[in-house]
Amino acid sequence: MQLERGQVHGILGPNGSGKTTTLGILLGVLKSDSGAFEWFENPVLHNSLKKIGAILETPNFYPYLSAAQNLEIVRTIKGVPKERIDEVLDQVNLSARKNDKFAAYSLGMKQRLAIASALMSNPEILVLDEPTNGLDPQGIAEVRELITKIAKEGTTILIASHLLDEIEKVCSHVTILKRGKRLFSGPVDEVFATEGTIEVGAENRDELEKACASYPGIKTVSLNARQLQLTLESKVDPAEFNKYLINQGIIVNHLVYRKTSLEKQFLELISHSK
Amino acid sequence: MKRLLKIEWLKLKNSKAFIIIGGFYILCLSLVTYGMGSFEVTAGSDEGLKTTLNLGKLGVFDFPYIWQNITYIAGFFKYILAILVVIFICNEYTYRTVRQNVIDGLSRREFITSKLLTILSFSVVSTALTVLITVILGGIFSNNRAMDVILLKTDFVLAYFLEVSVYLIFSFFVASLIKRTGFVIITLVLYTFVIEPIAVWQIGEPIGDWLPIQSIREMSELPFKRYAKDIIDLDIMENAGVSAMFRTLLYGLGFSWLTYYLFSKRDILS
């Protein structure tokens, strides 16, 4: 897996697929059993981490300190000027509450503070682990908007999520994990390239199957209850397809065209790779 | 190093636990050492000669003996500092901030070093406070204030510094191992006051003397025996135990290294 400058790279997988573990290893808190990685082609991890802003799982701060006091610690670890504290608090709209104790924050505010903290060193790379997990719809919208804004400024982002639409909305590239194995890594467009599915049924199923298999653009043909399930690899016009079947002497009694949802494709991708 | 101390100071200075426990420590240390002048010691047995002695009247604040007297009493209060250290180490795990510190770019070595520096700072402050109290009380109450006498027996100050710092390092080690404040304190109490004393008693010399808490204990001894010397025949320790100081120092280095070693090998799960 390779993360290029300027990418918004998603790590996608169901719960327990190894997203957080992967990020934990990349951030130096977990030890890998095998394999190696490098940030910025720099072998000293903690120096690279100063140039990376990261959240792993929940926002972790000292509850008895205020937002500003917590960020002062982060600032000192990263070695950046004091002014950054107010700048990043502004960026996430927390300036008004900066002297309140972290313990008194709502989950959404905690998450925003975590993002502020991650932005502290003007990072070249932002690593976010389930940044919208547990937030209410408004909180989710706020955090996504923030991520999109940061991405537009050219920051490279590595984001882990089990939410497809999150990946679809913000990512340019995606790596799909399942039980710790990589299923796919590449541009988002490429993963979800299939053009939908067609369900078709006719009296003479053998004839139908043969006809379908030879039609251009159809990737797979499978039996689904009483109908055939066709997955498409290029655009197929259902009207044209129907006409073709009639010309072949097949009268269909069932024809449904479905543009597959990402959700379904994701589940397909994951279930196919058993 | 300055950066690491600053990070720790930022974590401590606005904490209520730090202010309350720290204040309580200073108060206890000052009051009890001052109150030592009114301590009474009973020596002898019921059958034989029995005398009750008032330490103040016997010159407990006299130089140079005051060094041993005050550092011995001050040594009991290291447990308050140990509680403070345990709370702050365990908090880092409970709040998962140790993990965040590492993610933010503090190396594992730096994290342990920052804690060790804090512990050394606590020990330096505690030692400085003890010296200050000794100088003030000695300055007021000592019958002998000649400079060459004042400077005698200051090896007990070094022993005191080792006693505090190494016990705190030991607490740090146990805290990094167990991570839960309550369990750590129970373990420390059991080990310090029950398990090791029994082990020392069972094993006996010389191996028992090499256990960590026993090594710390043997650097000094109850100094007030001195004032009963005229009544009963006793061996009096005139200088801090050099061999015990050496063993204690080794334990300090050993536990520091072990804490670092375990932390560098381990996943930081919480």
Task: Provide a brief overview of the structure.
The complex is a heterodimer of chains A (274) and B (270). Chain A is of the alpha/beta class and 274 residues long. In chain A, 38% of the residues lie in helices and 22% in strands.
Structure in words:
The complex is a heterodimer of chains A (274) and B (270). Chain A is α/β, with parallel strands linked by helices and 274 residues long. Chain A has two domains: 8-191, Rossmann fold (3-Layer(aba) Sandwich), CATH 3.40.50; 197-258, 2-Layer Sandwich (Alpha-Beta Plaits), CATH 3.30.70. Chain A is 38% helix and 22% strand. Chain A has helices at residues 19-26, 45-50, 67-78, 83-91, 107-119, 137-152, 164-170, 188-191, 205-213, 238-247, 262-272, and strands at residues 8-12, 52-55, 125-129, 156-161, 173-178, 181-187, 197-202, 218-224, 227-232, 252-258. In chain A, strands 2-3-4-1-5-6 form a six-stranded mixed sheet, sandwiched between helices. In chain A, strands 8-9-7-10 form a four-stranded antiparallel sheet, covered by helices on one side. In chain A, helix 3 crosses helix 4 and helix 4 (83-91) packs across helix 5. The model of chain A has no long low-confidence stretch (mean pLDDT 85). Chain B is mainly alpha-helical. A two-stranded antiparallel sheet of chain B has the order 1-2. In chain B, helix 4 packs across helix 7. Chain B is globular and about 65 Å long. Chains A and B meet through helix 2 and helix 3 of A and helix 1 and helix 6 of B.
